[in-house]
C-alpha cells in the first residue's frame, strides 16, 4: 500500500495552480477536464513521479465548511517538508507569500505557516537531525 495522491480544497483551481506552480515552485502533473469536473494535480519538480497534490474545488458545502474550519482554527491543510525553513521563509516572503507564523522552533522541528491565497494554511517543516529517516 502506498500514497499516490492527497488533496487539499481550494476556492479557485486556476488561482491555486498559479500559486502552487509560479510561487511555490511545484510542477503541474495532471489537468483533465470533463464537463464541470476538473482533475488538477501538482508534484514536487524533483519527484515528477512522486505523490501528487490534488487541488480540489471546494464547491461541496461540506468541503467549504471543513476548509474554513481548519483555517479559522489555525490548522494547516497540508504540511510540506523543506531542508531549511528559514531559507524557504525568506524565499517565499520575497515572492509575496503571507506568513501567519514565522519560523518557530518546536520539539523536534522548525515550522512556519503561510496562507496559500486559496483558503488554506500550509505548514513548512524541517525535522531536526535524527528525526526523519
Please explain how this structure is put together.
There is one protein chain. This protein has helices spanning 13-23, 61-72, 85-94, and strands spanning 5-10, 27-34, 37-43, 52-57, 78-81, 98-106, 109-115, 121-127. With 133 residues, the chain is an alpha/beta fold. The chain has one domain: 2,3-Dihydroxybiphenyl 1,2-Dioxygenase, domain 1 (Roll). It has a four-stranded mixed β-sheet with strand order 1-4-3-2. The protein is globular and about 45 Å long.
Ends distance: 19 Å
* Corresponding CATH architecture: Roll
Count the DSSP helices.
3
Total E-strand runs: 8
Uncertain residue segments: none
Give, in spatial order, the strands making up the sheet with the most strands: 1-4-3-2
CATH topology: 2,3-Dihydroxybiphenyl 1,2-Dioxygenase, domain 1
* SSE-based structural type: alpha/beta
Order of helices and strands: EHEEEHEHEEE
Question: How would you sum up the global shape?
Answer: globular
Number of domains: 1
* CATH class value: Alpha Beta
The helix content, as a percent range, equals 10-25%
Strand content: 35-45%
CATH-level-4 superfamily name:
2,3-Dihydroxybiphenyl 1,2-Dioxygenase, domain 1
Mean pLDDT: 95
- Indicate the radius of gyration in whole angstroms: 15 Å
For the biggest sheet, the summary is: 4 strands, mixed
